Amino acid sequence: MRPKINFITLAAENLEKSIAFYKNAFQLSISDKNENLCLFEMEDDFYLVLSQKEDFAKQVNDFKGSSGFILSNSVASKKEMEQVVSKAEKFGAKRVKELNEEWGDSITIMDLDGHHWEIVYTKD
């Protein structure tokens, strides 16, 4: 059996602000929510979960913030890449890095809680 990832959980300093960011910047719809977490259904039975930082810390032994991984979102065109990034910036994201490679382009942004998102356009 091959492993399948169904959830990515991100710690949120301010859950309500982070929910608003993901709803507005990425136009995600809430699947489920309580006072400590919020689930956004993506596709193919995959969920992005936002967890209140204190609740998240209970699940890990040594929580020192978000680090060590990048979430990537592929888009269909360079124009769409710029639109996604601009919209995210409008709601508080910070542009971190831009890359132009022979395989395509990407812009990495950081959300309100320091999680890195790479918006990628791959040339055909």
Automatic annotation (TrEMBL):
Tell me what this protein is called.
VOC domain-containing protein
Upper classification of the organism: Bacteria, Pseudomonadati, Bacteroidota, Flavobacteriia, Flavobacteriales
Q: Which organism is it from?
A: Moheibacter sediminis
Q: Which residues form the VOC domain?
A: 4-122
Database matches in SUPFAM superfamilies: Glyoxalase/Bleomycin resistance protein/Dihydroxybiphenyl dioxygenase
Q: List, alphabetically, the PANTHER family matched.
A: BLR2520 PROTEIN
